[in-house]
Request: fold
Amino acid sequence: MLVEATTSTTSRLRGVKGLGVRLALDDFGTGYSAITALHRLPIHTVKIDRSFVRDMIDNHSDAAIVRSIVLISRNLDLHVVAEGVETLGQADILRGLGCQGAQGYLYAPALDSKKFDAWLARQLRDSTGGSWRDLPNNGMTSRADG
Reply:
């Protein structure tokens, strides 16, 4: 829908952004997502679809796509989040590419808000500094959808 967004839709999204809402383009790289949407739409974050992250260690094409999405997004000053991160190897590669965030079972399963609050409290309690910056994985952040 957003790839074919009209001037009116884009204008409305700019209005929403003006209210302080941060917009993310989810599942980027699949379906009808397009590179033109990255610079045309008022988004803050690009979320790399899990289908590319899943096989990027063993599949050169998926690795190239992930690398390209991160590079293009970062050059456009967009925050980049990888979906479906399940292994430390994936997290290390993504971190090395400059991917700023990750979500997936490596960090936690999808949780409803109450379970997420309890999980986050445990993580903060168990970390040395009591801050999300002190969580494992060198500053990569995670988010659980609920």
Residues 111-140 form one domain. Helices lie at 7-18, 35-40, 50-54, 60-75, 88-97, 113-126. Strands lie at 24-28, 45-48, 79-82, 101-102. Confidence is low (pLDDT under 50) at residues 130-146.
